[in-house]
Each structure stands twice: as C-alpha cells, then as structure tokens.
Design a protein that fits this description.
- It is a single chain.
- This protein has 274 residues and is of the alpha/beta class.
- The protein has nine helices and eleven strands.
- It folds into two domains: 203 residues, 3-Layer(aba) Sandwich (Rossmann fold); 57 residues.
- The strands form two sheets. The protein has a seven-stranded mixed beta sheet. The chain has a four-stranded antiparallel beta sheet with strand order 6-7-8-9.
- Helix 2 packs across helix 4.
- The longest helix has 14 residues.
- The chain is globular and about 55 Å long.
- It starts with 5 loop residues before the first helix and ends with a strand.
- 35% of the residues are buried.
- Bound molecules: S-adenosylmethionine.
- S-adenosylmethionine (SAM) binds next to helix 1.
C-alpha cells in the first residue's frame, strides 16, 4: 500500500454550505454535531484534573464540533483544529463566526504541512477513526504524526485516540473478503439511501470502503472511497511507547468500560507525555 492519496480527498464536499437549504437546517446540524461530540467531551473533562480549562489540538477536526462543544462548556482555553477538506474547514469557519468561538483556530491543511510550536497543548485528540486513514496514505505517516503529537504536548499532556475496531467488518468480510450494506436514511437527511461496499485486504489489514449516497428528490449520487488501517491495542501500544508516550489505557469507546477484543466495536485510548 502507501501513497494512496484518495484518503486525503475522501471528505471533499462534506458539509458544503451550499447544500444546506436554510439557516434552520444548519442550526439543526450544529446540534447534531455537538451531540455527536458529547462522548469525547465527557472523556476529555477527566483530563482537567482540578484545572478550569485545557488547550486542545484536534487532528482531523472536521466541523470542529469537539472544540466548540468544549468551549460551550467553558473548559477550553485554546483550541486548534486541523482539517484537510476545504468544505469542512469553511463550514467550521462559518460556525466559528456565528458562535463567536474566539478561542478556536481552524487550519485548512494536511496535518503533515502544519508546524506546531513545542509543548503548547494539554490534549491532542485524533478521533473518529482519523488515525486509521494515515497508514494507507503513507506507511510512515502514523509514527510521524504520533511523534509530532508528542512534541506538541506539554509535560503531563494527554493523547486521546478513538477509532473503529473493525471487528464486525472483519467478521462480515471473512468468507468472501467483501460485504455490502444499504440503509434508508431518515427524512431529515438530504440523501435517501446509503450503500456501502467494504473489502478487507488481510495482508496489510486494510479496509477499503466505498460509500454511495443517493439523493432524495433529485437524480444523482455522492461517492466516497476511503482506506482504513485496522489496529489492535498491541500494535498501537508499541507505536505509542516508541513515540515516547506512557503505556496507554484502552476503553470500549466512550462507554467507561475496558476494551474487549471480542466485543468492542470502538477502540478509545489515552496515554500521557510524562
Ligand atoms: C472521520 S473524520 C473526523 C471528523 C471530526 N472529528 C468531526 O467530528 O467532525 C476524519 C477527518 O480527518 C480529515 N483528515 C484526513 N486526513 C487528514 C490529513 N492528512 N490532514 C488533516 N485532516 C485530515 C478528513 O478530511 C476528515 O474530515
């Protein structure tokens, strides 16, 4: 694998402001994103540890909903979101202006092209499977990002990562190496159907997911292809220790339970720069 540029473009057009039909639709979507971020917010609150506020670097920040949700709670001293998709960055910027989120800076760049000042953050977050997209782009990229996250954190700072474990997907792909899924979407969604084709390449443990979204009320579809590396806690721990972090704790997503390799569909971890 390696040098697979598709992952860098997978979110082009997502949250395109032109596709929202009204201000109400945008407001509704903001609420959905804030709700989506609530598990991560509750988890990051533990990192306050007696302090009033934390500074957060969010890699693959999308709409920056995590940073806005933290700011809404009054616990963000500074937030920097790095997002490669222009449409998502523009959406985040509009939300920032409307919500007057002065503590948040949104950067529209490939994370590899951003230079961080050393030791400036309390927390670095790489959530929603963002970390799994790096290896298919370049096999060296995951380690490079962990090393840079380490540098960007102050002593005692936390790295938090959350991703799909792919245990169900691997099981579904077991016989033929591929599985298909489709769903009818709720009326609030501008798409009527979603269709997925997922293929597993066991040699490198990489998933190729092709998603197609069929428009509601007009002919056409939106298509997205992404590649994701499947990680075990053991593989992650080895990389994190090599990057200088403490031994990580693994959780079953934001459920406050320990990670179970047989049943956890999400893998959440936290570790420290000591
Ligand atoms: C699964 S999404 C996470 C979205 C975000 N956490 C949210 O809740 O809105 C992963 C994001 O990482 C971004 N991304 C992927 N590779 C990137 C890179 N090399 N540099 C910066 N952002 C990247 C994608 O464009 C996408 O928006």
């Amino acid at each position: 694998m390696g040098h697979n540029e598709q992952n860098l473009r997978a979110y082009d057009g997502v949250e395109d402001l032109l596709t929202f039909t009204s201000k109400e639709a945008v407001d509704q979507y903001h609420l959905e994103r804030l709700k989506f971020a609530s598990g991560a917010v509750a988890f990051l609150e533990k990192m306050l540890n007696g302090r009033k506020q934390i500074s957060v670097l969010d890699i693959g920040s999308g709409s920056s909903c995590l940073l806005y949700a933290l700011d809404n709670k009054g616990i963000l001293s500074k937030g920097v979101g790095i997002e490669i998709s222009k449409s998502r960055h523009d959406f985040a910027q509009q939300w920032k202006r409307e919500g007057e989120y002065h503590r948040v800076e949104n950067i529209n760049k490939d994370v590899r092209d951003v230079s961080f000042e050393k030791t400036q953050f309390d927390v670095c977050a790489i959530l929603d499977s963002t970390f799994t997209y790096f290896y298919p782009v370049d096999a060296q990229m995951p380690m490079q990002i962990l090393e840079r996250a380490y540098q960007a954190l102050g002593n005692g700072g936390w790295l938090v990562m959350e991703m799909a474990s792919f245990i169900d997907t691997k099981r579904l792909c077991k016989d033929s190496g591929v599985y298909y899924k489709w769903a009818e979407l709720p009326e609030t969604n501008k798409f009527l159907y979603s269709l997925y084709k997922v293929e597993h390449s066991p040699e490198e443990d990489v998933m190729r997911s092709e998603s197609r979204y069929i428009y509601r009320g007009k002919v056409g579809e939106s298509r997205k292809i992404e590649y994701s590396k499947v990680y075990t806690p053991e593989a992650l721990e080895k990389m994190l220790i090599e990057a200088g972090f403490s031994k990580p704790d693994f959780y079953d997503g934001y459920n406050n339970r320990a990670y179970d390799p047989k049943s956890s569909s999400r893998l959440l971890l936290s570790c420290r720069k000591d």
